Amino acid sequence: MPDNKLKIGIYELTGCAGDALLIIDCEEELVNIFKAANIEAFLMAKSDNNDEVELDVALVEGSVSTEKELEELRKIRKRSKALIAIGICAGLGGMQSYFLDDKDWAKNLKAVYGGVEMIHAKALPSKPIGDFVKVDYFLPGCPIGKEQFLSTFARLLAGNPPELFRFPVCVECKWHENDCLLNKNILCLGPLTAAGCGSVCVNHNLPCVGCWGPSEEANRTAEYKLLLEKGYDPALIKNKMANFSGTSITQFFARLKGETK
Amino acid sequence: MRILKLKKADLYRFLEVIYKEADIWAPQKKGDKFVFDRVDDFSKIELQTTRTIIPPKKIMVPPMFNMFDFNEAGYKEDFSHISKKILFGIHPCDIHGLLTLDKLFIQEYPDPYYMGAREKTLILGLSCWPDEHCFCKSTRTNIIEEGYDLFFTDLDEFFLVWIGSSQGDDLVKLAPDKFDENLSDKDIQAYIRWQNDKEKAFKTEIDFVTMPDLMELKYKAPFWQEAGDACLACGSCSMVCPTCNCYNVADKTFLGGKPGKRIRTWDSCTLPEYSEVAGGENFREDKSDRLKLWYTHKLQAYVSKYGKPSCVGCGRCIATCPVGINVKTIARALEGEEVDAFWKKMSREVTK
């Protein structure tokens, strides 16, 4: 029966499936999600998936790390009016893609898999989906947040773009009247990290680890030098910064390397 | 105006009496810092505090709140943050902060969310002692002449209590036996001595008279770029400032036919989105331009409109900015002094 509900597909590429799982975990809202839109494809939730239909919105989780995924992604893009990257892997590449150049990647592939032939799909250096297709919006988070997902979903249904947080966690952290952990010499990535989580870690006296990825204006140079001055080991700072930054950290590290030479 | 004497031991008894009138909010511990919070246990009220992490503006306009619920049929305003409150333990700088916000929120475009809460909040001020970051003597906000219902000056042995309004007088009348109208010469001497000692206790002084001109003369000074490069654009300076009043609004919609909410949140001119217009153009793309705007507002623009800076000397920006960009370091840089702050060290490393 034809109706005017939005046609939506939810897809998973290389990742832990945490973002798809989070959508399933929106328990009390699940019925509303399925009522409000036609969920044409969602492998984790249903078996009667339609992978040919034209979509209004595709939500894609995970990075591209095989030729098969790349092909699938291109097909999804072709039949979708809007494509939204959900989670750090789709938007930034995730841990599997950070700061590997292609030469290192070939060496690592051989070290891990030896001479094993991949028969189902040829491996590629893992990359964020935006490296291959146009991404209209990016919902950050590892995994994405329930509240931001649901409000984005509701905005899409009303024909509005997502309302994303463009400032760092520190703003929300001050809204919650937390004492700044950096000022207590604790390695906190709040100033570098996109808000939207409600500063949940710092509210519980734990430092921000950066799981919502870099904020729009992340001042990595200042934070790096500030942490160095506080006595932190350069390798530790870099690892922390890289965890949820995917390929977006590459340029910063290259510049650091240039400075120390 | 009347000034009365209250025995130290009678303070909690007085608070117990007025607690029946409204919720009391007062400074309490959070970790090793202080926050204004609703009082459930009088023993948790901190009398010897300096600044709270966030100023009491949060009681008038919470950092994030719903302005109204809406659907196709219309909208319904949500004033649920407004309730009768007694704000106890607020220091002179923060009372001045509220007086500044009154000008911004009430004079031109009266803001019902601010006004409603402001009118329902009684201000019971408390004297304080400066730490190394306090500079309210320089902003002349160390002394309070208006903006309170009662003001308590702590003279170790007893409090001197100023009655600043008829509502304050009404509170005193709820427990008249606790207050003594007869002040001895010795009491008055104790107050004068305390005031003189406090005047001498300030460790940070800033000459605000020269600031409007220096902002003009040093508008292109290189230190602005250095500070901008170090700025984390974290917005904390605005969040903790008692006179920063900018906010953002965004509509939140829900599934299942629930009404939408228009959410109002604290904003900052140091954030990139603040100066962006439709089409993606940004008037202040560079962080140094945004810092200049912040400091122009505090040290110059407000002065030309109201005759005094909109800084109240609370020292929160000094205690908060992780990279040492604050009214003190900027004032020193404007004065042409060598500044010992992280942003200075960082710029040296960058240019190396």
CATH architecture of the largest domain in chain A: 3-Layer(aba) Sandwich
Q: Which regions of chain B contain 5 or more consecutive residues with pLDDT less than 50?
A: none
How far apart, in Å, are the first and last alpha carbons of chain B? Answer: 61 Å
Largest interface (CB < 8 Å): A-B, 40 and 44 residues
| First-last Cα distance of chain A | 66 Å
Number of helices of chain A: 11
Percent strand of chain B: 15-25%
Supply the CATH class of the largest domain in chain A: Alpha Beta
What overall geometry of chain A do the principal axes of the alpha carbons give? globular
- Percent range of helical residues of chain B: 25-40%
SSE topology string of chain A: EHHEEEHEHHEEHHHHHH
Largest sheet of chain A: 5 strands, parallel
| CATH homology superfamily of the largest domain in chain A | NADH:ubiquinone oxidoreductase-like, 20kDa subunit
Structural commentary:
The complex is a heterodimer of chains A (261) and B (352). Chain A is an alpha/beta fold and 261 residues long. Chain A has two domains: 6-157, Rossmann fold; 169-260, no CATH class. Helices cover 38% and strands 15% of the residues of chain A. Chain A is built from eleven helices and seven strands. Chain A has helices at 18-24, 27-36, 67-78, 88-92, 102-113, 146-157, 169-175, 200-203, 220-229, 234-242, 250-260; strands spanning 6-12, 37-42, 55-61, 64-66, 80-86, 123-127, 137-139. Chain A has a five-stranded parallel sheet with strand order 2-1-3-5-7, with helices on both faces. Chain A has a two-stranded antiparallel ribbon with strand order 4-6. In chain A, helix 9 (220-229) runs antiparallel to helix 10. The N and C termini of chain A lie far apart (66 Å). The relative contact order of chain A is 0.13. The mean pLDDT of chain A is 93. Chain B is of the alpha+beta class and 352 residues long. Helices cover 36% and strands 20% of the residues of chain B. In chain B, the strands form two sheets. Chain B has an eight-stranded mixed sheet with strand order 3-2-6-7-8-9-1-10. In chain B, strand 7 (121-126), helix 5 (136-139) and strand 8 form a beta-alpha-beta unit. In chain B, helix 9 crosses helix 11 and helix 9 crosses helix 14 (342-351). The N and C termini of chain B lie far apart (61 Å). The mean pLDDT of chain B is 95.
